[in-house]
Amino acid sequence: RGSGEGLLGGLTYGSVSAPEDPGSSGSSAGGGVIRIDATNVTVNGIISASSTAYGGDQPGWGAGGSILINCRVINGTNGALLVKVGGYPSGTWGGGGGGRLAVIYDTNAQAQVSVPELSFQANGGTNTSYGPGRLGQPGTLYFPDMRFIPGVI
Question: How many of the other CB atoms lie within 10 Å of CB of 130?
Answer without folding.
Answer: 13
